[in-house]
Each structure stands twice: as C-alpha cells, then as structure tokens.
What we know:
- By secondary structure, this protein is mostly helical.
- The chain has 19 helices and no strands.
- The chain has one domain (2-439).
- The protein has helices spanning 2-10, 12-16, 18-43, 47-54, 57-84, 88-115, 117-124, 130-143, 145-162, 167-190, 193-215, 230-245, 247-260, 267-302, 306-343, 350-363, 367-382, 387-411, 415-439.
Amino acid sequence: MVGKLKNYFFGSIFRRGATLLTFLTLGSYVLGLVRDMLFARVFGASRLLDVYYASFIIPDFLLNIFVAGALTAAFVPIFTYLYARNENVEAEKVATTMLVAAPLILLILAIPVFIFMPRLADVVAPGFAFEDKELLVLMARILLLSPIIFAVSNTLGNILISFERFWGYGLAPIFYNLGIIIGIPLARIFGPLGLIEGVVIGALLHLAVRWADIAKNRIRWRFPVQWRHPEFRKILKLMIPRMAGQPIEQITFFIFTNIASTLTVGSIVVLSFARNFQSVPVSLFGIAFSTAVFSSLAKKAALGDRAGFLHHLRETAKALGIMTGLSALFFFFFGEWIVRLLLGGGRFVESDVIRTGQLLAVFAFAIPAESFMHLIARSFYALKDTWTPLLVTLPGLILIAVLAKLLLPLMSLNALPFSFFVGLTLEVVILTFILLRKLRRL
Length: 442
C-alpha cells in the first residue's frame, strides 16, 4: 500500500500538480491555524467573534452560488475542450467574456442584498441582540466587496487549472489568510471593522497573485466581450444547475449558524473552529487531488476515452481514501488535544477547548465523505453533467436539516456535525453508483 501511494504521489499525479497543490494548501492552512490561534487568544469564544463569523454567511453565499463552484464546473470543461481541439482563439474569447461577466453579475446581485441586509441578518442570526445584529449588518455589507473581487480571481484561477498551472492557484489562498491576519492589529486601531478590512485586503492579495501568474501565461484577452458566443452560452446553461446545487454547503452552515445563534454564547465560534480543523484534510486531499485531476478528466471525457477516465478516477480515489481515512482517525482520537495545544490559552478557556474538541471528533467522521464528494462531483462536471449532483445533494440537504433539528435536544451542538456526516455519506454512495453506470455509456 505504501509503495502504491508513493508511486501515486511521485508518478502521474505529481505531474498534474496534486502534490504541489497539497503542499500549497498546507501552507494556507498553517496560516489559517495561526489566524485561528490569534482569534481564539485575543477574542475568545465571544459574541464579537460570533458576529464576525456570521457576517460571512450572506457574502459567501453569493460567491459560492454564482462564481466559486458554478463557474468551475461549467467553465473548465468548455475551456479545456476548446484548447484540446486547438480552438485557442475561441477559448480566449470565452475567457475574456467570463472575466467581465462574473464580477458584473456579482455587482448587480450585491445591490439588493446590501439594501435588505438588515432583514437577512434577522434570518441568519435570530438569537442575536439588537446591537449585535447592527454590527452584523455593517460587517456583512462591507464584506460584499469580497465576492466581486473573488469573481475575477476565481475566473483567473479556473484558467490556470485548465492550463494545469497550479502555483498562482495554490498561492492565492495563502495571501488571503495573510490579509485576514492583518485585520487583527487593524481591529485594535479601527475597532471591530478592522477585522473586515483585513478580509478585503486578503481578497485583493488573492487576486493579485493569480493575475501575476496568468500574466506569464500564453493567453490573450480578446475584447470586446461576446455575450452571444455559443460556448459562453453553453457555460451559462451548465452553470444553472450548479448554481442551484452549489449553495447547499452554504445553506447547511447557514442552518447550523441559525441554530447555534440560539444556544449559549460562543456556540458559533466553537462550531467554526471545529469546522476549520475538519476542513484541513478535506482541502489538503479532497479539494487538492480533485482540482489537480479535473482537467485530465475533462480531456479524457472530451476524447471519449473511458479507460483513461476510469484510470485517473481510480488512482485518485485510492490515494484519497487512504489519506482521508487516516485523517479522520487522527482527529477523532487526538482532536481535543490538538485544539488545546493550538487554541487553548488567553480568553479561550478550558470549557471552550472541550466543546470544540467534541465537535471536531464528530466532524471527523465526515472527512472521507466530503473529500470524495469533491472528486465525484468533478467527475460529473468533466462529463458536462451538472444536474445529477444537484438532484442528489438537494434531498441530502433536507435530510441534514431535519436530522439536526430532531437530534438537537439529544446531542445539543454535536447534532450538527453528526447530521452533516450522515447526509454526506448517503450522497456519496448514491452519486458513486450513478457515476459508474454513466461511465459505462461513455
């Protein structure tokens, strides 16, 4: 097993960038860990930090619906297909149009959200006091800048993925976390809004890194934009089901935030910290491996090469299963110790450590399922199928929400990660079965 894993990392997947992305993602999470350590020790499990984390819900919701997941799922297969057929000029026309369209869509959507943010805040955190909701509204309104910036950055990132260039793609989150850390000293100067200013600085750094990398590439921007380009329209059509399915994760954690806001002070904070730890192996292995192999899957699908498609999928799945299984075991047995070692101290007291450790132990069960969800979803997108994942994950969201509500009296806050684990596991099983049947017809 060790020999196969070694061959995987230093063989074909190494050439496609999985190893590079894994180490760059690790660097991002090291900075993310520093960020959480500073937050925990400076602010503790306080209501201020509850408000800060809750303020991301609506802006992140917009970003993930209309850009982050939907754009990747639709853009990369089309762009890769055009380049695989040596239609470089058409690919560049589509890229230019999307580069303008993505931030424009976010800007248009941000205006009504900005206006109705007070009412949205009542939905996000019904348990907050009036003054906390006022701060939440102000923070969330400023944070609406970040989806517009990320719309440009993510478009550039998807072009880099298509070219299998991973340095700029992987470095950008590191600089984003650096900007968030800068917000901590800014908070001492400008008050709570300094934290939000750090987020905006991080988003600009995220964009700058990818822009610098794309400038070294062979792509040419071809203006004016062509709104009626047939391939651009195909992207929009492919985005529609993904736009409906992408917010499921955001809706899930919106529901969790809504529930946690009605519990004891600091519930949102410990939930967010536990989720941050749990998402480390998901990003290191699930997202990194899936992102690195996505372009190869899209090329094999475009050429109708079922054997090649299955080979890439199978080899990625083997390594993913080993790494995420070990990660789940580690966090289940040593999660509380890690939380105490890294976050304990200052205003983050022992009771906060215990609550976070318990949540992390339950969240650990979801690590393999969530990681495989990224790989399976990208396999469908490579086949230009964005509907099937939506039709499976939507009922999964309902199951997660219902389970969370039913188990809350019995398990308290632990009901949230447990329901997340159950729902994701069922989704992965169903999607895997459908994917294997679909590949028989490729």
